[in-house]
Amino acid sequence: MVLSGKRVLLIIGGGIAAYKSLDLIRRLRERGARVTPILTQAGAQFITPLAVGALSATPVYTELFSREDEQDVGHIRLAREADLVLVAPATADRMAQMAAGLAGDLAGAVLLATRSPILLAPAMNPAMWAHAATRRNVASLQADGAHFIGPAVGEMAEAGESGQGRMSEPLEIVAAVEALLEPEDKPLAGRRAVVTSGPTHEPVDPVRYIANRSSGQQGHALAAALARLGAQVTLVSGPVALADPRGVDVVRVETARDMLAAVQNALPADIGVFVAAVADWRTAENAAHKIKKQGDEPPVLQLVENPDILATVGHAANRPALVVGFAAETRNLLENARIKLDKKGADLIVANDVSGTIMGGTRNQVQLVSRNGVEAWPDLSKDEVALRLARHFAKMLETI
């Protein structure tokens, strides 16, 4: 067990998602981790020290200026003894304090003093997550080496509110903890990879566009996983509301033609992974001004086909050694994936049924279609799918 005997210092912030931290403690301990909780003053407004202590079976730390706990400079001891510091929920306020280097409470002092990996599980209203100040703080923390899991997309505690801001589920956070603490080899060291992610936006007029329902979560997770295994990764991303993966070169594009050009500029590469949900069509002409209603008849849009990025690269003379496509289907999944495998010159197709909540969700269930057959995987978090795929690609490259 990866977490057996590992010491996880859990900082529980002040948000309604704090209730999930109780299950998180249980899940970590099930896997052999030793969990030491710090319950912030704000966190204690949502859950009690008694509940936290009962599940962790350890003392619950709450105060920076505790006479007993600080006799041996307790916050330094807590910071240094941990194998990993986990902040769940990580509120907008806590991340702002971290980005500014503030240490006004026990949690802040520990976060400044630790030399261990820090993993944050953000939880907040979607408007707060999207705010420019939060985006700056996230970027600053990532630059400082902090790791993130989530936030997920879904309903908020506030009635009628939904969007990106939900704290990731406990088992997804556990998987991220395991990934950070797992002894890591670098099977892709020295390899170059290019990954596409997100949707493309094909303008109709200055205020409208054609697009697909892609959040970019799977593509971004895969880019991060490839980098974690040692690859030099270029991520070509359509418009998404996600933080850039750490250690990855990101090229932002809007249209399919922009994406193809960016991919071609990123070649040569050893691995090409085409996750993006590229719009198949665009308008033949872009209206210079907003199209207005003209009586009862809707405007007629003449569409032309966009370039097929996977096929273009798959059949190119300078194609990567390993070309991987994604097939998002709502019916005839395997049949369409097999057709795509041959037609587009791919070595592997990752097929998934998107008739449910896959697009925009945090989980995925994929089937790997190659010329050797089909390999079905169970329902997993998108981060776990990404790490498994990255390892699978590394093994495939060994045989090429």
UniProtKB/TrEMBL annotation:
<feature type="binding site">
    <location>
        <position position="280"/>
    </location>
    <ligand>
        <name>CTP</name>
    </ligand>
</feature>
<keyword id="KW-0285">Flavoprotein</keyword>
<comment type="function">
    <text>Catalyzes two sequential steps in the biosynthesis of coenzyme A. In the first step cysteine is conjugated to 4'-phosphopantothenate to form 4-phosphopantothenoylcysteine. In the second step the latter compound is decarboxylated to form 4'-phosphopantotheine.</text>
</comment>
<dbReference type="Pfam" id="PF02441">
    <property type="entry name" value="Flavoprotein"/>
</dbReference>
<keyword id="KW-0511">Multifunctional enzyme</keyword>
<dbReference type="GO" id="GO:0004633">
    <property type="term" value="F:phosphopantothenoylcysteine decarboxylase activity"/>
</dbReference>
<feature type="domain" description="DNA/pantothenate metabolism flavoprotein C-terminal">
    <location>
        <begin position="188"/>
        <end position="395"/>
    </location>
</feature>
<protein>
    <recommendedName>
        <fullName>Coenzyme A biosynthesis bifunctional protein CoaBC</fullName>
        <ecNumber>4.1.1.36</ecNumber>
        <ecNumber>6.3.2.5</ecNumber>
    </recommendedName>
</protein>
<feature type="binding site">
    <location>
        <begin position="307"/>
        <end position="310"/>
    </location>
    <ligand>
        <name>CTP</name>
    </ligand>
</feature>
<dbReference type="InterPro" id="IPR036551">
    <property type="entry name" value="Flavin_trans-like"/>
</dbReference>
<keyword id="KW-0288">FMN</keyword>
<dbReference type="InterPro" id="IPR007085">
    <property type="entry name" value="DNA/pantothenate-metab_flavo_C"/>
</dbReference>
<dbReference type="GO" id="GO:0015941">
    <property type="term" value="P:pantothenate catabolic process"/>
</dbReference>
<comment type="pathway">
    <text>Cofactor biosynthesis; coenzyme A biosynthesis; CoA from (R)-pantothenate: step 3/5.</text>
</comment>
<keyword id="KW-0210">Decarboxylase</keyword>
<keyword id="KW-0436">Ligase</keyword>
<dbReference type="GO" id="GO:0015937">
    <property type="term" value="P:coenzyme A biosynthetic process"/>
</dbReference>
<feature type="binding site">
    <location>
        <position position="326"/>
    </location>
    <ligand>
        <name>CTP</name>
    </ligand>
</feature>
<keyword id="KW-0479">Metal-binding</keyword>
<comment type="similarity">
    <text>In the N-terminal section; belongs to the HFCD (homo-oligomeric flavin containing Cys decarboxylase) superfamily.</text>
</comment>
<dbReference type="GO" id="GO:0071513">
    <property type="term" value="C:phosphopantothenoylcysteine decarboxylase complex"/>
</dbReference>
<comment type="pathway">
    <text>Cofactor biosynthesis; coenzyme A biosynthesis; CoA from (R)-pantothenate: step 2/5.</text>
</comment>
<comment type="function">
    <text>Catalyzes two steps in the biosynthesis of coenzyme A. In the first step cysteine is conjugated to 4'-phosphopantothenate to form 4-phosphopantothenoylcysteine, in the latter compound is decarboxylated to form 4'-phosphopantotheine.</text>
</comment>
<feature type="binding site">
    <location>
        <position position="290"/>
    </location>
    <ligand>
        <name>CTP</name>
    </ligand>
</feature>
<dbReference type="GO" id="GO:0046872">
    <property type="term" value="F:metal ion binding"/>
</dbReference>
<dbReference type="GO" id="GO:0010181">
    <property type="term" value="F:FMN binding"/>
</dbReference>
<feature type="region of interest" description="Phosphopantothenate--cysteine ligase">
    <location>
        <begin position="193"/>
        <end position="400"/>
    </location>
</feature>
<dbReference type="Pfam" id="PF04127">
    <property type="entry name" value="DFP"/>
</dbReference>
<dbReference type="InterPro" id="IPR005252">
    <property type="entry name" value="CoaBC"/>
</dbReference>
<keyword id="KW-0456">Lyase</keyword>
<feature type="binding site">
    <location>
        <position position="340"/>
    </location>
    <ligand>
        <name>CTP</name>
    </ligand>
</feature>
<feature type="binding site">
    <location>
        <position position="344"/>
    </location>
    <ligand>
        <name>CTP</name>
    </ligand>
</feature>
<keyword id="KW-0460">Magnesium</keyword>
<comment type="similarity">
    <text>In the C-terminal section; belongs to the PPC synthetase family.</text>
</comment>
<dbReference type="InterPro" id="IPR003382">
    <property type="entry name" value="Flavoprotein"/>
</dbReference>
<feature type="region of interest" description="Phosphopantothenoylcysteine decarboxylase">
    <location>
        <begin position="1"/>
        <end position="192"/>
    </location>
</feature>
<feature type="domain" description="Flavoprotein">
    <location>
        <begin position="6"/>
        <end position="178"/>
    </location>
</feature>
<dbReference type="GO" id="GO:0004632">
    <property type="term" value="F:phosphopantothenate--cysteine ligase activity"/>
</dbReference>
<dbReference type="InterPro" id="IPR035929">
    <property type="entry name" value="CoaB-like_sf"/>
</dbReference>
